[in-house]
Amino acid sequence: MTRKYELVYVVSPEASDDQVADLHTQVEAIVQRIGGAIERTDNWGRRRLAYEIGRHKEGTYVLEVINGTGELMKDIDRRLKVTDLIIRHLVVRVDEQQGVIERTKARRSATSQRRRVARGLPAERQPGEGQRGDADDDRDDRFDMGNERGMDR
Amino acid sequence: MNGRKSFGAKKGGRGAAGSQSKDGQRRPMFRRRKVCKFCSDKIDDINYKDTKLLLPFVPERAKILPRRISGTCALHQRKLRVALMRARQLALIPYTAE
């Protein structure tokens, strides 16, 4: 039974970039040995911790999206627990939640299309319609670091 | 008219809730109706990685903002709580303020 999991681990700030990469290959090795696949890896870089863990105030966050079985995740969990460089980690199963989210989204768009057609409007929302423009984009400001003002468009 | 008067009287019984106008008539205090942020913004995914989304629900003492104040609906408050607790574990959000 293969499922989708998210693994986030926090690496000690003393670790070098090589050591962080080494940890990633270690995780990859376990995943491949037991028969899973890493779907995506995301290094969030060095971040401030919200509270001190041990005596650390910072940490490097790495996210891995893994397709695999529960036994695989159990093994990874056990290995990460004994790794000194990793100061905190979290494994979350995400496939069920993602299914729920997709279904909600599909249901919502279907309802809105049905209602719009019933009102005699085109099924899709037209650009520039309504008070709020790009409703999906206005909260997603992860990538516009430079544009602090944000409002002048 | 009748219904409004009786409502005002009920509020007046609780003292501070009714404000006194010039002619001494009690009027229920105006309160904006709270709506669930996740319902109105159509946010389906309350994710523990999205600190920007979660932080407004963690006031200074770092406790989870109760529903009666934030106005979040029961469904989304449950999801929010799970997300906040996961984010806490990863030190993205504090457990307490020192």
Would you kindly provide a written description of the structure presented here, covering whatever features stand out?
The complex is a heterodimer of chains A (153) and B (98). By secondary structure, chain A is an alpha+beta fold. Helices cover 36% and strands 31% of the residues of chain A. Chain A has 3 helices and 4 strands; from the N terminus they run E-H-E-E-H-E-H. A 4-stranded antiparallel sheet of chain A has the order 2-3-1-4. In chain A, a hairpin with a 2-residue loop joins strand 2 (37-53) and strand 3. In chain A, helix 1 (17-34) packs antiparallel against helix 2. Chain B has 5 helices and 2 strands, in the order αββαααα. In chain B, strand 1 and strand 2 form a beta hairpin. Chain B is globular, with a radius of gyration of 19 Å. The model of chain B is unreliable at 1-19 (pLDDT under 50).
List the helices and strands of chain B in order. HEEHHHH
Tell me the Rg of chain B in angstroms: 19 Å
User: How many strand units of chain A?
Assistant: 4
Q: Shape of chain B, please?
A: globular
Largest sheet of chain B: 2 strands, antiparallel
Order of helices and strands of chain A: EHEEHEH
Distance between the termini of chain B: 52 Å
The residue ranges of chain B in which pLDDT falls below 50 over 5 or more consecutive positions are: 1-19
Helix/strand class of chain A: alpha+beta
Largest Cβ-defined interface? A-B, 22 and 18 residues
Neighbour order of strands in the largest sheet of chain A: 2-3-1-4
Strand content of chain B: 5-15%
Oligomer: heterodimer
Average pLDDT number of chain B: 78
N/C terminus separation of chain A: 49 Å
What percent of residues of chain A are in strands? 25-35%
What is the CA-based Rg of chain A, rounded?
21 Å
Record the SSE blueprint.
The complex is a heterodimer of chains A (153) and B (98).
Chain A lengths: L2 E9 L5 H18 L2 E17 L2 E13 L1 H13 L3 E8 L1 H24 L35
Helix pairs in contact in A: 1-2
Chain B lengths: L1 H11 L5 E3 L5 E3 L8 H4 L10 H4 L12 H4 L3 H16 L9
Antiparallel strand pairs in B: 1-2
